[in-house]
């Protein structure tokens, strides 16, 4: 083939960095014309690898090298131990749903806080925050509450975009409030204590939920037709709703206990195992509550389908990321940031803006995997290096505190990308569940409804930057 | 101009300094005609660097034998427990002697790889929490994070090898999932297991991992004679630089222990002798298994001993 | 499973579609069962360690092997059900032949990609497999040396099933393109807004009650 098409000559002088920018554009086009996202990313990644290797090895060998290299990624990336948390957390969500646990949580939230303006929206926020304490995946949380909260809000004539938006945004709380898959992934990438990061997420998750609730109330007061409050519950009915939410509390207790309780023989489980313990408890409860084989099978079918979808996203994006690695896009970015001579907070802001832009197109895990090798050392250096004292540092914290603080901020940013167009996993999943439940809600509706929460998230990030104590207080206790 | 991509993992550290030295030396000697891009994780997973070399995705890579013993059976002799390698110089000598064995070259050639140099690692001593375990009897029931042959060895002492990833080692030890972790010093530092340790075994010296740097054979042969000579010539200097640099880290180690209040544990000679005895069946089993795999196992095994003798008589 | 809005009839295509679906659904269920198995393994590991000081030997290695099952066994089923996420901002505005053309094109991209991935992942398997070695292994796990080839073989196998599914969908959309109309069989159809509205009431009272 090389005699007919001399790829090396053809590609001579083509700058691979330019190619990577062009391919980012191609990815956008493929996604816009409706190619499944995971496959569009993988396709563009392979095209990039082909250009890279054909330039060096000619057509035949370049093609073979590119395909063999891309063909490693699905197995290699899907067998990473830390990712084993993801299906566990998804299955918790589905089992809890099929066992009716999430409905009781939503019901309790409705009775206690439903009376405020936009009451079902606020209830959704607090129910997702509560559920976040048993679910480690934002996407799964959104999927579960899309089934429960959206139909109820639609029945009370809530604005359909708002109803979908609050569920998509509420789901993102699952990644801050432990257990959290993405915090574990962050901890593993930057080699920081998983336990401390999970602890650090508690208060920011709670603050984030409060800010969401404030936003919903504000919106409901401002736009009268957004959705009515739900009133008329007696105190008796309120307290009656609490026992129904107890199983969730028990699971929360099990997870927290097994990670944090230190007997003379140490903690019960690693954070990874604690997620599985939580799932086991929910499974037993579901069976005890009379879950039938047909329902268990349904839950497993759904969980497996969603798991396959998320893993396809992971390996698909990572094939693209592998190409970016060869094109050295991350290095170029590092040099760029390293060369800036502005205030550390301005550079932090710039990095966060890059996350906003990247987050529009990428999924949270792919984005973190791609960027952290670059941004994390940059942030640590910005703070004053790995051995800096609080007094001498730029952000007033040690390197370890900086790692935890930046982790929570960056995870919040990554969560943000789950609700921004054009690619926002939570919005897709909400739209998918809505479609599944035959509700008239399009992806565009979900994005529109989620857009105010983007503003709330920006406020949350600003609060966390201004008051790092919110992040660092709990981990400082152990 | 020749440009090589080099795949390593993690962050730049003592363990990768010789590769940076090599890249700089080669670029300088060729006036920038032959350069290397060193990528930390951008080109491959750490467990798939040999695959990448085999595919021709990059020209040079580092890997550790214990990550995937079946990919590199021959050099796993260097990871057997209690081989009595006493310092990094000896580790370099035995590694390079084994790398030069035709059976190793042949096995690497199946991956289109050629051994360039080693990345010598000190012995994987234990750090632990709680009461010091300086006798075999005290290792009974000890939950230890140690992989492969080391795990087998501790298992023979009655310990319980407990499976956690190296990046999970810190939180596993912090939470009590394991009581002890076996790493080289730099890994105890970078995975921060030393930060929560109460003690460190200074003379257990149970064994270590072996991590070669390899080059893609096609790329190596495609170099001009001049460039190839420059590359080969730079290896010894790179290793010297590595040893000097790692030596500084080891010198700091005492200060690290003191700073963190970590007790040094010395294990009595007769206890060590018992452990070495327990390692003998593991050695025998290795020889049998590798023979079955068609490797000159006894030959490789004896080569390690002979090289050690040679080094020691030379000093 | 109720999510499927794939039509069927007596045509050869539809019969093949349903036959393949049976395989896909069974594999997807195995994937789901693997998640439960992983949960049980973790419980065994924790309880074994805590109560008997006997954790599962090579726990991390085993988990890494099992992960491949739930990551890939549902891949093709997910495509059959239209479960892989995408932006339908453009597609939803199309109807009839233009729509089937867009879908055809989109599946064609996936088919080309999948063909490449079968080749690549098959070679990834081949590099870990050796007829002459114990357990046929030329690549093994870090902790207890499990052979990796079985897990690596799952990947090209799953891609091959996906390949078959994509060919069926190309056939289905191709038929839609040739015959026109708005309801070709054996492919996931976009939901008609009227139909959605009709289903709404029954969904709110029915499906979410559990
Ligand atoms: Na959570
Ligand atoms: Na986004």
TrEMBL record, chain C:
Residue stretches making up the Tripartite ATP-independent periplasmic transporters DctQ component domain: 38-171
A Pfam family assignment: DctQ
Keyword Ubl conjugation found: no
Keywords: Cell inner membrane, Cell membrane, Membrane, Transmembrane, Transmembrane helix, Transport
Membrane-crossing residue ranges in chain numbering: 25-47, 59-78, 99-122, 149-168
Membrane association type: Multi-pass membrane protein
Location within or outside the cell: Cell inner membrane
Keyword Transmembrane helix applies: yes
InterPro entries (UniProt xref): DctQ, TRAP_DctQ
Protein family (similarity comment): Belongs to the TRAP transporter small permease family.
Quaternary organization: The complex comprises the extracytoplasmic solute receptor protein and the two transmembrane proteins.
PANTHER family found in the cross-reference section: 2,3-DIKETO-L-GULONATE TRAP TRANSPORTER SMALL PERMEASE PROTEIN YIAM, SLL1102 PROTEIN
Purpose: Part of the tripartite ATP-independent periplasmic (TRAP) transport system.
Protein name, per record: TRAP transporter small permease protein
């Amino acid at each position: 083939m090389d005699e007919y098409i001399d790829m090396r000559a053809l590609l001579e002088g083509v700058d691979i960095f330019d190619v990577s920018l062009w391919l980012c554009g191609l990815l956008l086009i493929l996604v816009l014309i409706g190619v499944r996202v995971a496959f569009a990313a993988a396709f563009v990644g392979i095209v990039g690898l082909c250009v890279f290797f054909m330039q060096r090895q000619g057509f035949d060998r370049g093609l073979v090298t590119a395909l063999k290299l891309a063909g490693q990624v699905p197995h290699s990336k899907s067998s990473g131990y830390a990712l084993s948390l993801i299906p566990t957390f998804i299955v918790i969500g589905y089992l809890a749903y099929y066992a009716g646990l999430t409905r009781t949580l939503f019901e309790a939230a409705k009775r206690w806080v439903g009376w405020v303006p936009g009451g079902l929206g606020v209830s959704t926020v607090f129910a997702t925050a509560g559920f976040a304490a048993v679910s480690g995946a934002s996407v799964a949380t959104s999927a579960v509450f899309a089934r429960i909260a959206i139909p109820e809000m639609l029945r009370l004539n809530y604005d359909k975009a708002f109803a979908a938006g609050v569920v998509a945004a509420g789901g993102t709380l699952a990644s801050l409030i432990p257990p959290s898959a993405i915090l574990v992934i962050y901890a593993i990438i930057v080699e920081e204590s998983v336990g401390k990061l999970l602890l650090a997420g508690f208060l920011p998750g709670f603050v984030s939920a409060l800010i969401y609730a404030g936003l919903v109330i504000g919106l409901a007061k401002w736009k009268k037709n957004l959705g009515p409050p739900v009133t008329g519950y007696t105190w008796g009915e309120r307290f009656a709703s609490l026992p129904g939410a107890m199983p969730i509390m028990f699971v929360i207790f099990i997870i927290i206990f097994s990670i944090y309780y230190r007997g003379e023989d140490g903690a019960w489980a690693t954070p990874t195992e604690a997620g599985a313990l939580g799932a086991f408890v929910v499974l037993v409860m579901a069976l005890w509550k009379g879950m039938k084989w047909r329902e268990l099978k349904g839950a497993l079918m759904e969980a497996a389908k969603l798991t396959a979808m998320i893993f396809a996203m992971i390996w698909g994006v990572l094939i693209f990321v592998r190409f970016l690695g060869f094109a050295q896009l991350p290095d170029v970015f590092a040099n760029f940031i390293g060369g800036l001579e502005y205030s550390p907070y301005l550079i932090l802001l710039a990095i966060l803006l890059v996350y906003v832009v990247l987050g529009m197109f990428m999924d949270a895990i792919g984005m973190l995997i791609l960027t952290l090798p670059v941004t994390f050392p940059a942030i640590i250096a910005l703070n004053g290096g790995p051995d800096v004292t609080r007094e001498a540092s730029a952000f007033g914290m040690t390197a370890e505190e900086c790692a935890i603080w930046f982790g929570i901020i960056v995870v919040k940013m990554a969560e943000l990308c789950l609700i921004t167009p054009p690619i926002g996993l939570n919005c897709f999943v909400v739209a998918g569940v809505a479609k599944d439940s035959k509700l008239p809600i399009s992806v565009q509706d979900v994005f529109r409804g989620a857009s105010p929460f983007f503003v709330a998230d920006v406020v949350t990030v600003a609060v966390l930057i201004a008051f790092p104590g919110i992040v660092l207080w709990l981990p400082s206790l152990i | 101009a020749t440009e090589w991509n080099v795949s390593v993992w993690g962050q730049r550290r003592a363990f990768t300094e010789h590769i940076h030295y090599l890249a700089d030396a080669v670029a300088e000697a060729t006036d920038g005609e032959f350069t290397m891009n060193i990528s930390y994780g951008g080109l491959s997973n750490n467990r798939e660097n040999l695959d990448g070399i085999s595919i021709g995705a990059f020209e040079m890579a580092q890997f550790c034998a214990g990550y995937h013993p079946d990919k590199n059976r021959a050099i796993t002799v260097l990871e057997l427990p209690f081989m009595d390698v006493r310092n990094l110089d000896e580790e370099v000598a035995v590694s390079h002697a084994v790398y030069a064995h035709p059976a190793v070259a042949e096995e690497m050639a199946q991956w289109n790889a050629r051994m360039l140099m080693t990345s010598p690692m000190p012995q994987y001593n234990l750090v632990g929490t709680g009461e010091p375990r300086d006798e075999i009897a005290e290792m009974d029931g000890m939950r230890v994070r140690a992989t492969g042959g080391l795990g087998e060895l501790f298992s023979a002492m009655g310990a319980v090898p407990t499976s956690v990833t190296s990046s999970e080692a810190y939180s596993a030890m912090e939470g009590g999932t394991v009581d002890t972790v076996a790493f080289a010093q730099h890994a105890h530092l970078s995975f921060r297991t030393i930060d929560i340790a109460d003690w460190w075994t200074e003379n257990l010296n149970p064994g270590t991992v072996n991590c070669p740097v390899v080059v893609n054979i096609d790329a190596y042969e495609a170099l001009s004679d001049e460039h190839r000579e420059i590359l080969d010539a730079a290896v010894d200097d790179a290793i010297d630089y590595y040893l000097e640099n790692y030596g500084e880290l080891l010198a700091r180690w005492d200060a690290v222990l003191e700073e963190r209040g970590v007790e040094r544990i010395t294990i009595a000679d007769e206890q060590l002798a018992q452990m070495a005895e327990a390692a003998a069946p593991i050695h025998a089993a290795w020889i049998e298994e590798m023979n079955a795999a068609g490797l000159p196992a006894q030959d490789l095994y004896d080569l390690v001993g002979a090289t050690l003798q040679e080094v020691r008589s030379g000093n | 499973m109720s999510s499927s809005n794939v039509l069927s009839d007596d045509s050869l295509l539809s019969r093949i579609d349903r036959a393949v679906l049976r395989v896909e659904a069974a594999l997807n269920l195995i994937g789901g069962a693997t998640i439960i198995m992983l949960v049980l393994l973790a419980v065994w590991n924790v309880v074994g360690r805590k109560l008997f000081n006997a954790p599962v030997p090579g726990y991390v290695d085993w988990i890494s092997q099992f992960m491949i099952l739930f990551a890939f066994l549902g891949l093709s089923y997910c495509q059959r059900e239209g479960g892989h996420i995408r932006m339908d901002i453009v597609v939803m505005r199309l109807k009839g032949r233009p729509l089937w053309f867009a879908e055809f094109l989109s599946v064609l991209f996936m088919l080309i990609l999948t063909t490449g991935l079968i080749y690549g992942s098959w070679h990834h398997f081949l590099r870990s497999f050796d007829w002459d070695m114990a357990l046929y292994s030329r690549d093994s796990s870090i902790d207890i040396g499990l052979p990796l080839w079985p897990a690596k073989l799952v990947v090209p196998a799953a891609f091959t099933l996906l390949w078959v599914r994509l060919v069926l969908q190309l056939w289905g959309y191709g038929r839609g393109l040739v015959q026109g109309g708005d309801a070709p069989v054996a492919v996931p159809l976009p939901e008609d807004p009227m139909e959605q509205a009709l289903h709404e009431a029954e969904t709110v009272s029915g499906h979410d009650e559990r």
